[in-house]
Amino acid sequence: MISIRHARLGARALVLVGAALSLPACATITRGTTQTFTVESTPSGAQVSTSNGFQCDATPCTFRMPRKDAFRATVSMDGYVTQEHEIDSGMSGAGGAGFAGNVLVGGLIGMTVDANSGAMKDLKPNPLVVNLLTPAEHAAAEAEAARQAAAAAPAAQGNPQ
Fold first, then answer.
1. Can you give the pTM of this predicted structure?
2. pLDDT per residue over 6-34, tens digit each?
3. Phi, psi at residue 24, to the nearest 5°?
4. 21-42: string of b/e by CB count within 10 Å (b at 16+)?
């Protein structure tokens, strides 16, 4: 026969297990698996498309993006050079705190859910700020970069490490 004391302990244990399983992932609950991602451009009005299927017709624009995966954003506008930017998905401070909260509440199940859902990550850079260049401006910027690289090369050769 089970004593009342043991029955109460068993009931408390079931409540605690139920609470732990109902809140399995702190970062997933507090941050979610998506975030807003903004693209701004100078001049505004550029088209944006992403490698994961999102697009907008005119900047500035904001998307609701999954935090989990990195992607490429392509920004284009008639009369300007098209630019591609890599957007990374990396650990964020708030996501790390939520992940650490699993030690108290979610345990191994919560850690696994947070790690797989992407909730502990952030997209970077966010916002993506793009300065579009005309073909002439782009050519001038590339020529200046080449000139600076050529000027730096003799200095690097004369300074062995």
1. 0.69
2. 667 666 765 555 444 444 445 556 667 88
3. -75, -15
4. eebbbbbbbebebbbebebbbe
**Residue position matching structure tokens 């005309």:** 134
Q: Which residues contact 137 (CB under 8 A, 6 or more apart)?
A: none
160: left (phi over 0), alpha (psi -120 to 50) or beta: beta
Torsion of CA 97, 101, 103, 105, to 10 degrees: -170
142 by DSSP, 3-state: which? helix
* Rounded distance between C-alpha atoms, residue 130 and residue 143, angstroms: 20
Side chain identity at residue 64, one-letter code = R
Query: Could you read off the pLDDT of 78-123 as tens digits, one per residue?
Result: 999 999 999 999 886 654 455 555 555 555 666 666 666 777 788 9
Position 4, amino acid: I
